[in-house]
Structure formats: C-alpha cells, structure tokens
Amino acid sequence: MEETLPVGDRHVIKRTWPNAARRARTVRVLGIAALFIVAVVGMAVPWALAHVRKVQAPYNVLEHRFEGWWAQHVSELDLEPGPTGSISGTVYDEDGQPIEGAIVVVSDRYGRTATARSGADGRYILQGAPAGSVVPAAARHGYGDAVYRTDLLSIPRRVRVRAGWTTGGVDLRMVPLEVHHSDVSVEWGEQVEVFGDYPWPVHGTRTEVTVMRDGYPVVCYLYEPPSSAGGDRLLPGLVAVYPGPPLNWEPASTAFLAQGYVVLGVSPTSTRDLDAYADTEDLRAVLALFEQGSLSERVDVGRIAALGGSFSSVALVRALEQGSSVRAVVMLGGLADPYLLRWDAYAGGYTGYEISELMEFAMWSLGRPDRMPRMYIEDAAAFHVVGLPPLCLVHGTGDVVVPYTQSERFAEALADAGQPYELHIYDTGHYPGIYAPDAATEAMYQQMVLFLVRELDLSLVAPESRALAP
To answer: Domain for residue 71, yes or no?
Structure first.
C-alpha cells in the first residue's frame, strides 16, 4: 500500500505493509501471553510445593542431595547455633476467639526447634527463634495443625527474625478437628490356619479383611484363637499397627495370639504418598470397626489395646487423638518428633548422609522444617499427646532406623502433659528378634505383656498353658 504525503514543496511516497502491523500485534499478544504464563507458573509452583506431596517429595529429596554434594565438595555445613530473636502473636479460632494451650514451633534448617505455648488470651512469645526466615506452625489437642500462611494461595508465609529483636503480629488461625465421615465397607477374604512358636507353640486362624474407605482398600489380617480356646467368653483385642505389610510381621501377631488376644494386623502407611492425614483416616476407620466388634464377634470391646512401631506410630497417635476406646498402647521403636530425627541425622552421628535409599526418601522428602513445617508438625506425635491412653514406650539403644532419643522425646512430652506412660530402653536394635528371639527380645516382650495385663485388667497366660497349642 502506498500513500503520498506532502513534505514542504515535495511529495513523499510512504509505503506501509499490513503484515508488519499484524506481526507487531502478534508480538504484543505473545508477550502478554508469556507474562501470563510466567505469572501462573510463578504462583502454581509455590502452591504445588506447599500442597501436592508428589511434587513436594522429589523436590525436597533433590534439594537435600544437592546440599549433600555441596557439603562434600564445596563447603562443609555449619552446624553451630546462630543468633536468635523472638516471635510474638496470637493463636485464635475461626470466630477470632483466642485459643489457650497451643504449642507454637519454629525450626532452623537442621531441625533444632524453639517452642512456646499460648496463654488464656491466645498470646504467645516464642524466644530463641533462629535468625533469618522461618515459618511457624502450631498444634493443639482438638484442633487441626496450623501453618503460618499467606491469604493468597495459602502457601507458607515466612517470618523474618532479626537477632535480638521481637517480630510481632504473627497470628495463627486454627480450625477445630472434625471427624471425617467416610464411606466404609468391609470385604472378607481367605481364611487359613496359622502356626507360631513364640513364646510357645500356638495356632489359630488368619482371615484377610479389606476395609474400603472412600473406595481405597486397607488390607488387614485378623488373627483369632481356635474356637475351643476361651470357651464362650470374650477375648481382649489388640490392633497391631505395622510399618509395612502385616504378613511380614506375623510372628509378632502370633506372639500376642498366644496370650489369648484377638489380633488385627494393619499397615496404614504403605501407598498413600506420605500423606499422614490419609494414613490417619484409614487407621481410624479400621479402629472404629474393631472397637465396635464388627470385625470379630469374639472381641471384648471394653478391653482393646493397640501396638505401634517405627513410622506407623505417627498414624496411631493421630488416630487415637480423635477419640477411641483403646485402653492402652505399646509403642515399639516409635517416631515421636521428625524435627529431632532430622537434627540427629545431621549432628547425632547415627546416619548422617549414609542412609538407605528408602530411608533417605522418607526422611528428606519432608523438606526443610524452617520453610515447610507442615509434614513435620503432622508427623510429630510428641505435639499430640493430650488425651492418649497409658503408653508403654520400648526402644533399643542400637536402633539405627529410629534413634532411641525419639522415645525419650516422647516420654518428655507425655510427662509435660501429665499423661501416664512408662519408658523402657534396652541394649538392642530396631525390632530385634522377630524371627530369632534373643534375651533382649524376651525381656521386651514380657514387659509389654505385663503392661497390657495391668492396663486391661487381665490374668497372665501361663507359659505351660497349651490352650492354644496345635
């Protein structure tokens, strides 16, 4: 296209190209679209890292591996405590009312924590907070865990802590803990005869039971003494919460079958992508059915105990927190505080960076507690001890999976909360002697048996008893 324009006493021909204009418009549109995509990604990535565990876990493990490489090849980690400051604020509920007795916690990147408890007015002052950027979290019986978050996208919000100064106005909102009403059904599977040889020869039946919760299967195994054992009387029940497939732990189940218990073996921590909330809900649904007598008509619903260990102890504690008729709990090699577990991994010398691939993913997938405290507070049984039944804590000093300091930490939290407990530390490892019992195994087993006898008001089963023998 040509256009003649007068310029002074001359005429200039100006040529314009329609495709050039279109190209300019296209560039502008693409530029706006690119900015929009960058903005969306910029918001989506922090949101995914805060809420989607399948995104969180690989990112956190990758970050830790880079940290390990950096420490080995560039600069060693500085584990010395740094300067500290204080944080203050209010813990309140949905209606803006203050919440008393909430535990507020912050951590440095290595797992060293500082805590404070809110007063009657909901106010707290947390001293000893590590200088730098931290994300506070809070826990209290009867409420869901809270993380300090932004209003937009609800992602963790960092608080800037200055050495020697107090950062105020850090308020945390907590929502009452509500029982989730799930669609639950039961599917019965194969029933077979099982045998055991500890603490004496024993046999009974094992029935596969699948509890469907909201369409998700939780496979359990019900162990019952022979119908001739115990006559018509009801038998005490034991829910054994294992950290892996229940069949792998059958010798432990039959050991309590020998004591006259109806045992339900369950593992709620197998395939839920490290989702502590889902694990808890699965276990709570199974517990409710067992406590109602829906899984075995031979159970005395007034005499039910639970056994947990290793990482399964977290789901058990959180499930009991929501209300249960369980009268006693045995915790064997249990996890109480992942903050402390992380610190031990760095400075305690029990594993450092030399840990198994599975353990590495489980531990480091939680991320840095100073920036991503959500899974730490969810998995910290030590912050959720109020209202628990009496606990028997059993641990080995040689445990290289879950250090015995975890049970000591649990005992400390129970003592602070005025909860009944007993602590027993043995010179042994993690789950010793399940297939080849030794002297330490015998001592631990007898201690657990005596604890349950006392708490459930039972009579000891004599070793010479052959009521359950094949």
So the answer is: no
CA distance 171 to 312: 32
Residues 6+ apart with CB under 8 A from 190: 207, 208
Q: Are residues 149 and 211 in the same domain?
A: no
Distance, in Å, from the CA atom of 128 to the CA atom of 87, rounded to the nearest integer, reads 9
Domain extent, residue 11, equals 2-51
| Contact between residue 376 and residue 332 where contact means Cβ atoms under 8 Å apart | no
The H-assigned helical ranges of 292-435 are: 312-321, 338-343, 357-364, 374-378, 405-417
Q: Quick check: 201 and 171 in contact, CB under 8 A? A: no
DSSP assignment, residue 170? -
Q: Which of 150, 173, 196 is the last residue of a domain?
A: 173
Using CA atoms, how far residue 306 sits from 5, 66, 243, 426, in Å, is 94, 40, 14, 21
Q: What share of the chain is helix, strand, coil (3-state, %, to 5)?
A: 30, 30, 40
DSSP 8-state class, residue 143: B
pLDDT of residue 83: 95
Tokens 């106005």 identify what position? 169
The number of distinct structural domains making up the chain is: 3
Per-residue pLDDT, averaged over 164-180, amounts to 90
Query: What are residue 437's DSSP bridge partners?
Result: none
pTM of the model: 0.82
With the CA atoms of 210, 212, 213 and 215 taken in that order, what torsion angle do they form, in degrees rounded to the nearest 10? 140
Does 41 share its domain with 151?
Answer: no
Q: Is the pLDDT of residue 12 over 60?
A: no
163 and 191 share one domain: no
Q: Distance from CA of residue 165 to its chain's centroid?
A: 33
pLDDT higher than 70, residue 270: no
Q: What is the pLDDT of residues 276-290, one digit of tens each?
A: 677 888 899 999 999
What the block records as the tokens of 245 is 């497939």
Using the 8-state DSSP alphabet, how is residue 344 labeled?
I
- Cα-based torsion angle of the residue sequence 113, 339, 379, 367 in order, rounded to the nearest 10 degrees: 110
Q: Do 442 and 343 meet the contact criterion of CB atoms below 8 Å apart? A: no
> Residue 338 — pLDDT band, cuts 50, 70, 90?
very high
Of 80, 78, 104, 79, nearest to 90 (Cα)? 104
Boundary residue ending a domain (173, 207, 239): 173
Other Cβ atoms within 10 Å of 277 Cβ, number:
15
Number of residues that make up the chain: 470
As given in the structure block, the two tokens for residue 101 are 């007795």
Q: Are 401 and 428 in contact (CB under 8 A)?
A: no
What are the backbone angles phi and psi of residue 349, rounded to the nearest 5°?
Answer: 80, 5
Tokens coding 409: 């930490």
Residue 124, SS3?
strand
